[in-house]
Structures are given as structure tokens and as C-alpha cells.
Design brief:
By secondary structure, this protein is an alpha/beta fold. The chain is built from 22 helices and 15 strands. A hairpin with a 2-residue loop joins strand 3 and strand 4. It is globular and about 60 Å long. It binds pyridoxal-5'-phosphate (PLP).
Length: 494
């Protein structure tokens, strides 16, 4: 197994791909081929716990890691860090609607599934691919990646981590989680702008010659904790494989029986992991791609035209407020059968004109695999209320977007195939949006008042990591312009 780039042929190991984050040609690392999960392996995995399943899946991609390296990483990532026995439990909310709860980790969002493991994969990768170097993890966040990466990398020897978040683009709780982060190797800074500004700024710094020379001279190297890093994707493939095994074990699915997957989507990382699981042989039928009012992916799936020349909206599901979905590039590579010049051409068009249009053949393939839909903030709130009243299930706004679009899908197609719907955050991270959707009326003035009220009204306990934030001091107060990001990094690294 080796890794290549979406934009030109390469030949690197998984350790090199993970240590670098981004390929030198600006493309994303992809596996040279998809390893297959045989029926015999599924039979064995059905009886395994999550960690054992993770070891099996990781070993198929990380062929330059020893079994012991993988086992130690998995053990550290998923032991005592999640508040449930299974890190990714399934709740059957309604017949055929299986909600895969991915937010039982330390920061209460699905990013923990990968970011509790990534620091281990990355330090092992760095030892193999860049021995003796300090890895500087540079991260742009739409809210949840930042905290999950900080939690994963805080005080990890041989690493430093810098997180940029949009000043007015994250929820109060998300911001509080980041600005209270402790650790000797962490830096957190707001930027004047939205998530795309933060992500573009980070991408520019990755490619900056001066910055590269500075790091080289100080025996440091940039890497990424964003889902452009292949090390983020592999752990995400695991939970789709694991969900399939759990559904079989629970008698809800026969072996080989197809199921749909619905995902609230931003950077296209989570849903891409489901695509990869399918490429490996998991019988996933339709992929339901749910967006909020920033519905660029809905338009793309429906028309084959990706056009970012449109207003950017701030919504109640901030982790999906994105107009440039980085991981779509990996999907394009699949749609174009690995044609690197075709993908490079599309990415060039995107950089130049902010839009591109895919071929008829690629569009037909895309539409046969995906359903795209979106809902606005009003639809999100209505769904949170409806799901709570009807099924007594409390969900966060991102999950509600997926539930809303799943309902649209059922209505439009009549397809009653069992569905695994990814639930991506705890509702208590977004109390200001969730509480009024459950119980209209006057809201408590402050964040923790709302969190307490939400718990009181629903009887659902507040996750410990969120409750504990109340008493922590604010350690990171900085805010810079896009142009100021470079200087902020230089000052921190000195
Ligand atoms: C990151 C995130 C998403 C979007 O996931 P992508 O992999 O970027 O598509 C959805 N919901 C929540 C809560 C998130 O944190």
C-alpha cells in the first residue's frame, strides 16, 4: 500500500502522508488502492469490540506501521477517553433510523473519533518520516476541530499546536472550550473573518517559502490536524465499518444487506469516510449529504457545478458553515477514476474563478451515489423540536440538519432502506439553538444558565467536560487579521 496525490502521481508511505498532511503539489494524499474487507473478516469483526475493529481497519492502510504501534495508538485513543463503553454507540430513534452517536469523546463532537488517535499516528509517523523534528500542527477550525485537536495534542512531546478560529463564527461553548485550553505547547487565536478565511490563511502559510525556511532552520515541520490529513480519515472509516458490524450483531441488518448513510456535511471529511468504507466492500447504498443554508454541496450534487461565488451565512450549525469543502477533491479523484490532471485542472479553476463544472459522466456517477439536500435555521429548529416531541430524542443542530434532509430524502424517493445517520455533536455545545427549539420562551442570559435549563427540561445530564469549563480561566485572548496569522505563528514558535 502506498499513497499518491490527487493532483500528480506520487509514491509515499502512510507515515510520510500523515507527517506531511498535504502533498507538495497542493493535492491531498489518497491510497493507491482500496484494501478490501472480506466476508471472513466481517464475520470475525462482528464479535469484536470497537478497539479491535479499529486495529483491523487501520492495519489495512498503515502497512508501514507495526501491529504493536497500531495497537498502542488505538489503546491510548479509546481507553478511558469516551463516556460510553462503545465510543460510537447506535441509537435506534425510529424503525430503520439508526443514529450513530459520534460525540461521546472528551470534547463532545465527532472530531474526537479521529483526533484522539491522530496525535499517536502523527508522532509515530514523524519518527519514521522526519526523525528528531518538532511537528507544528497548524489548524483552522469551524468550531469543533480546534478543541478536539487541542485536547489530543496538548503536551504531546515533539509537537506544538496552533489553532485559528473565526472570531464570530463559533458557538459560545465552542469558543470557551478553546480559549480555556491548557498545555505548554498550545496556541489559540481568533481571526477577523469566516472559516474559509481561516482555512485559506492556513493553506497559504503551508505553502509559504519564508515560513518553510524558518521551520527548517529550527528543525520543525508543519503538519495538519484538519481532515485534509489522511490520518484523520482512517479512524473515521472505522466507525462506519463498526456500525455495520453492530447492526448485524443486533439483528437489525443481515450480512451483506445494504444500508444508507446520512451525514451533516461541511468539509466533506465525515461523508468521505463512508465512501471509503463502501469502496472497501461495506454495503452502503445511498449517501445522503446534508447541508445548512450554505448549500453549495446540495447545488453541486444536483447540477455538477461547484460555485463558491455566493454569500456566506452564519448559521446555528456553525461547524458546517463552509464554502470550500476540502475533501471534495478526494471525491473528484474517485469520480474521475484517479485522473490527476483532470482533478488538478478543476482545482485550478476553483482557485482562479471560484467555480468549476464536472463532466457529464462524473455528474451522473455522483448523482447515482449521492442525494444532496439542505435546511435553514428555521427547519433545523423545527426538526430539533419534532424529534424531541415524537421520539424523545435530543439532538444538536448539525444532527438536526441531517435528520431534516433524511426526511426530505424519504419523502422524495420513498426509499425505506435502513439508514445510519451520523450524529456529530452533543446538543449541550449549542444550547442557545437547542433550548428554544425544545421549549419556547425566555432564555437564561448566560451560556451555563441555558445549559442547566436544557438539562432540567429534558432530564439529559450535561456532559462532564462541558460542565467543567465554567470554572476555568481564559488563557487565549488574541485576535488577528488574516494578514496577521503569519506573525502570530512566528511569535509563538520563537
Ligand atoms: C466538523 C463537523 C461537521 C462537518 O464534518 P465534515 O467532516 O467537515 O463534513 C458536522 N457537524 C459537526 C458537529 C462538526 O463538528
Amino acid at each position: 500500500m502506498y499513497f499518491t496525490s490527487t493532483r500528480s502521481p506520487r509514491n509515499v508511505t502512510s507515515a510520510q502522508a500523515i507527517a506531511r498532511g498535504l502533498a507538495e503539489d497542493g493535492g491531498l494524499f489518497i491510497p493507491s488502492e482500496f484494501p478490501k474487507i472480506s466476508g471472513e473478516l466481517i464475520d470475525r469483526m462482528i464479535d469484536m469490540d470497537y478497539k479491535a475493529r479499529a486495529r483491523e481497519v487501520l492495519a489495512l492502510y498503515l502497512t508501514d506501521f507495526s501491529a504493536d504501534e497500531i495497537a498502542r495508538g488505538v489503546e491510548a485513543a479509546y481507553t478511558g477517553t469516551f463516556d460510553s463503553e462503545n465510543p460510537a454507540p447506535i441509537v435506534e430513534v425510529a424503525p430503520g433510523l439508526n443514529v450513530l452517536e459520534l460525540w461521546h469523546g472528551p470534547t463532545c463532537a465527532f472530531k474526537d473519533m479521529a483526533l484522539q488517535l491522530l496525535p499517536h499516528l502523527l508522532t509515530i509517523s514523524a519518527r519514521k518520516a522526519a526523525p528528531g523534528r518538532t511537528m507544528v500542527i497548524l489548524t483552522a477550525t469551524s468550531g469543533d476541530t480546534g478543541k478536539a485537536a487541542l485536547d489530543g495534542f496538548a503536551d504531546v512531546p515533539g509537537t506544538k499546536i496552533i489553532v485559528f478560529y473565526p472570531q464570530n463564527g463559533v458557538s459560545a461553548m465552542q469558543k470557551l472550550q478553546m480559549v480555556t485550553q491548557q498545555g505548554g505547547n498550545v496556541a489559540v487565536c481568533a481571526i477577523e473573518g469566516n472559516f474559509d478565511d481561516a482555512q485559506n490563511g492556513v493553506k497559504k502559510i503551508f505553502a509559504d517559502r519564508e515560513m518553510k525556511e524558518y521551520l527548517n532552520a529550527h528543525n520543525m515541520e508543519f503538519s495538519s490536524a484538519n481532515s485534509i490529513n489522511f490520518g484523520r480519515l482512517v479512524p473515521q472509516i472505522v466507525y462506519y465499518v463498526s456500525a455495520y458490524c453492530d447492526l448485524i450483531r443486533q439483528g437489525k441488518l443481515r450480512k451483506g444487506e445494504a444500508f444508507n448513510v446520512a451525514v451533516p456535511t461541511g468539509n466533506f471529511g465525515n461523508i468521505l469516510a463512508a465512501v471509503y468504507a463502501r469502496e472497501m466492500g461495506i454495503p452502503i447504498a445511498r449517501l445522503i449529504c446534508a447541508s445548512n443554508r450554505n448549500n453549495i454541496l446540495t447545488d453541486f450534487i444536483r447540477t455538477g457545478v461547484y460555485d463558491r461565488n455566493r454569500p456566506f451565512y452564519t448559521t446555528t450549525s456553525p461547524s458546517m458553515d463552509i464554502l470550500i469543502s476540502s475533501n471534495l477533491e478526494r471525491m473528484l479523484s474517485l469520480l474521475y477514476g484517479g485522473d490527476t490532471s483532470a482533478v488538478a485542472g478543476l482545482m485550478e479553476e476553483l482557485a482562479r474563478n471560484g467555480r468549476y463544472s464536472i463532466s457529464d459522466a462524473a455528474r451522473e456517477k455522483l448523482q447515482s451515489e449521492f442525494f444532496g439536500g439542505f435546511c435553514d435555521d428555521a427547519g433545523t429548529a423545527a426538526t430539533i423540536g419534532e424529534i424531541y416531541r415524537k421520539y424523545h430524542y435530543l439532538c444538536d443542530p448539525h444532527t438536526a440538519v441531517a435528520l431534516n434532509v433524511y426526511k426530505q430524502y424519504r419523502r422524495e424517493t420513498g426509499d425505506a432502506t435502513p439508514c445510519v445517520l451520523a450524529s456529530t455533536a452533543s446538543p449541550f455545545k449549542f444550547a442557545a439553538a437547542v433550548l428554544p427549539a425544545i421549549q419556547p420562551g425566555e432564555l437564561p442570559a448566560d451560556e451555563f444558565g441555558m445549559v442547566a435549563k436544557l438539562s432540567e427540561v429534558t432530564g439529559v445530564p450535561v456532559p462532564k467536560p462541558l460542565a467543567g469549563l465554567k470554572d476555568l480561566p481564559v488563557l487565549h485572548k488574541g485576535c488577528v487579521s488574516k494578514e496577521g496569522m503569519k506573525l502570530f505563528i512566528r511569535n509563538f514558535l520563537q
